[in-house]
Design brief:
Largest sheet: 7 strands, mixed
Distance between the termini: 35 Å
Radius of gyration: 21 Å
Shape: globular
CATH topology of the largest domain: Aspartate Aminotransferase, domain 2
Number of helices: 13
Number of strands: 17
CATH superfamily of the largest domain: Type I PLP-dependent aspartate aminotransferase-like (Major domain)
CATH class of the largest domain: Alpha Beta
Bound molecules: 4'-deoxy-4'-aminopyridoxal-5'-phosphate
Amino acid sequence: MNIFEKRESNVRSYCRNFPALFHRAKGSIIYSESGEEYIDFLAGAGALNYGHNNDYIKQEVITYLNADAITHGLDLHTSAKEKFLSKFSEVVLEPKNLDYRIQFCGPTGTNAVEAALKLAKKITKKSGIFSFMGAYHGMTLGSLSISGNTKVKSGLLGTSNNVTFMPYPYGFMESFDTIEYIDSVITDVNSGIEKPAAIIFETVQAEGGVIVAPLEWMQRLSELCNRHKILLICDDIQVGCGRTGPFFSFERANIVPDMVVLSKSISGYGFPMSILLIKPELDIWEPGEHTGTFRGNQLAFVGGTAALKYREISRLEQDVKDKESFLHQFLHEQIASINDKIEIRGIGLIWGIDIANFGGSNFAQKITSRCFDLGLIVERVGRNDTVIKILPPLTIEIPTLEQGCLIIKQAFEDYLA
Ligand code: PMP
């Protein structure tokens, strides 16, 4: 029995699907201690948009460390934070005419989701939240209460308090006007459900199975929230930071949520960091009302500032569009053609191969584990883990992207032969 099985909690998860001892990583490749190479289509679940050990970002981090600069700073004013705030304003907010205050939260995405929920309730003096079926927002109690996966929830946790799940435009709901439904629940005085403080949504349900919300749906959701004075919170933790092309995933719908949650790749280098963007008039926090020891990871500020500079010099946004075209074509021509029950969905550099109706959960598990044997790390998401999720670093080279996709195709062929 190895030390992980002997000592680490049973709760560990990714390591069970990718059983190797990982040691080194560069760009889109991870190396095991025994020398195997794996193409990385998991990218730290979206925390490594700029690749492993990105040279540009690494240099800035090393320079900072060598200067004995502050590494832990609570929420003190530091030069690293000053630079991050300035760069984020200059290259993200101002060019897009977005005016948000930035709240640094505890280091995980779920902590910023909790902050958003607390603030929305404080502002509106209402306790209800509407979320969507299929949503994923994290594993602390508040975030879990607004997440869809009932397997990890339990009545014992008391996580259903005042949360109402609305239908996301997916499956048979695609032919159902979900926005009109939400509207009627809010306006019907006998609907049994009070008007909520906020509606929280993902523009692409990533863990939910790579389900991309239509533009018009997002626009109507935003309009509905404005009309009913309900706060709109966008959880851009996984598909923000350029994953869909532009910096924010909601930009494509031309909407401005009241609050935006960012984490994962915001620090550029896989360092823990999460932030909540708040419209200035909604920033009614009292000092210290959502505090925490680790809200000032200085290396994350340095990495995050460097990542924003890297985005500029590398023309990453255009690059993502080119790779999106490649994936769109490959997956439709070479994977969907295997069987017409396979569904392909995606945008930017997040794509799903849905095999719920073609072999289901066990088959999906076999495919991803065969992929691992062939040198590819790729995970499963969605209902019963039936969607193979392609989430490479945005910086991946097209030949490596193609090689990874060919491994997936090979895995299907191996099982169907
Ligand atoms: N929201 C979304 C959309 C996510 O994808 C995740 C992480 N997979 C979270 C929230 C939670 O982030 P964390 O795991 O850092 O708490």
